[in-house]
Structures are given as structure tokens and as C-alpha cells.
Amino acid sequence: MKVPILKQGNILIATIQSALTDNDLLSLQDNLAHQVIQYRSQGVVIDITELDVMDSFATRTLRNIANILKLRGAKTIIVGMQPDVAFAMVQLGLTLPDIKTARDLDEGLTLLK
Amino acid sequence: MVDDQVSIPILTDSDIVSARQQARELAKRFSFSSSELAGIAAAISELARNIVSYATQGTVNVSLIEEANKKGILVIVEDQGPGISDIPLAMQDGYSTSNSLGLGLPGVKRLMDSFEIQSEIGKGTTVIVKKWVLR
To answer: Which residue, A16, B17, B22, B26, is the most exposed by fewest CB within 10 angstroms?
Structure first.
């Protein structure tokens, strides 16, 4: 399932769906890396409200995306993580160090202003 | 009566999604909390990913179980991969997640109530985990 990316001003918004495969995540990484240059975007919000599980691969890929976008001159904010998903991540020992998070899309967009 | 078990062959990354979704649907029939369901899905995702990363093929078997006066879920993940030579090392925190290919086994152990692993070099690995419904 492809992740839709919306352009809003100088910000890109990627909305992740629940049934996301490893390859979907990798293509999101590619698409965002290209689109921040194409659209001269200064920030990217990745909305994971619909995501019902975060495992080591998803965590690592989100971290990689943030690092790649930083090198491309854009900020990344992860928004909307469900409490149950956060709970399972912490038990698995997964963290997102150095990545900005916000509770929802509005808050994420405010952080990028 | 609906089947109280599912068996999902694991070959590609889309099978990982299928395994965790089917396991979650099955587990919903017992009164697991939503955070326990997320934990079960995450644990199965890690175990199924190990198959795709290291063993190329295997199976995730999930069944609902009842024992004495408790209910739970039993997950048996088997592969015919290369086997794990040093299980204590694979069970160490950080061994997995710092590396680009994460085994994630210590995390799975924390998420579940019981954890057993058997592995034979050249034959494969079997991981058996259980999670009980809290009451």
C-alpha cells in the first residue's frame, strides 16, 4: 500500500496507513528524499495515526528518513503515535532519539512554522 | 465454530504484515487489551521478520489456548534457516537493535509471558511464545 504524500505550502505531509510493508516504507523514504528537493520543502510531517504496530524495521526506517531529510535540508516531525503502539515500542526497546514528535497533525505543523 | 488457529507461511515482507494482522484478529477473540494486542502484533512482526531476513522461509502458527483457568495465545514461529549459533548472544539486548539486521529477540521476550527458543545449525530455528489474558 503506497503512502500518499500531500504538499501544503512548503511542507510535505505523508500519511501512513496500517498495513505497511517493508517495501512501502522504503519507497516512502525514496519519495520523500526526492520530493523535498522537487518541491523545495522545508519540513515533512509523517502522520502515523493509523499505524497499529511499530517494529524494529519501521522504527529504523523512520529514523533513516529523518536523517536523510536533514541532509537534504528539511525537518521531520512524526505525529499521531497511538499510545498502544508507543507502549509496545518501549517494551521492544525501540526509541526514536533525535526525532521530533508531536501529538497530532496540527501540532506538528505548528512546530514547523 | 470458527478455527481457533491460523498458520501463515512467511516468504516475503508482505507476509509479515499478513501474519501480524491475522494474529491480532485471532487474539481479539480473547479479551486482550488494545496495548496487549499491539504488543502481540509487534512481537509477531519481529519474529516473522527474522524469517525473511535470515531464513528466507518459514511459518508463523498462532492459536488460542486455554489452560487451567486462564486463556491466552500461543505463537510458534519455525524456519528452516541456518540456525542461530550463539543463542545467549542473540538474546542480549543491543546485540540486535544496534545492528542493521535486528533479531529483536530480547524485546519479544519482554512483550510476551513465556519465551522458548530452539535452534540447530543447518536445520533451523523454532521460537515458541505465549501471552495470557490478564484478569
So the answer is: B22
